[in-house]
Design a protein that fits this description.
about 160 residues; mainly beta; 2 domains; five-stranded mixed β-barrel; elongated
Length: about 160
């Protein structure tokens, strides 16, 4: 991008990059022109953002749950901005391309609290990879792992460990 801008092929450039195992996102805006306004002498952003509702996260979650993405937006408490509420999942693969573990971000149906969990069983892992039946919006259950302290497990079998 820098070479293109120095050659005169445009005035502005945007570079996006992923780092880690697609766990970090970076962006840089470049320009072939000098900045028209001076840089601020202090950070214009607040130390803590207080106008965005933060969902309660249950570190030890149990009960009926849903993997969900809310397509709508909600008005931020005390503010005027709209924010999206998002829950999701992803699957980690090994070097041979085989699925290893699912990671689920969902909501407890009873309290509406958010939770993080791994797949509880092989069937749930396969269902996360199912291209004909979207996992987002599907219900299941979340429960504590009996073997690994502090880990939640999610299963599409709603009767599992309830």
């Amino acid at each position: 991008m820098v070479r293109q801008l120095r050659r005169g092929n445009g005035q502005y450039g945007l570079v996006l990059a992923n780092g880690g195992v697609v766990t970090y996102q970076h962006v840089v805006c470049l320009s072939s022109r000098p900045r028209s306004l001076p840089y601020p002498d202090r950070n214009p952003l607040p130390e803590v953002t207080a106008d965005v509702p933060v969902p309660t996260v249950d570190a030890q979650a149990e009960g009926e749950a849903v993997i969900e993405v809310s397509m709508g937006s909600t008005l931020a408490q005390g503010g005027t901005g709209l924010i999206d509420i998002i829950q999701t999942y992803t699957v980690k693969f090994d070097g041979d391309g085989e699925p290893v573990r699912g990671f689920i971000v969902g909501r407890l149906k009873g309290s509406g609290h958010r939770f993080l969990a791994n797949n509880a069983d092989h069937n749930t892992l396969c269902e996360l990879l199912n291209h004909s039946k979207e996992p987002i919006g599907r219900e299941g259950c979340v429960f504590r792992d009996a073997e690994v302290k502090g880990r939640n497990l999610f299963s599409f079998d709603i009767t599992a460990n309830l």
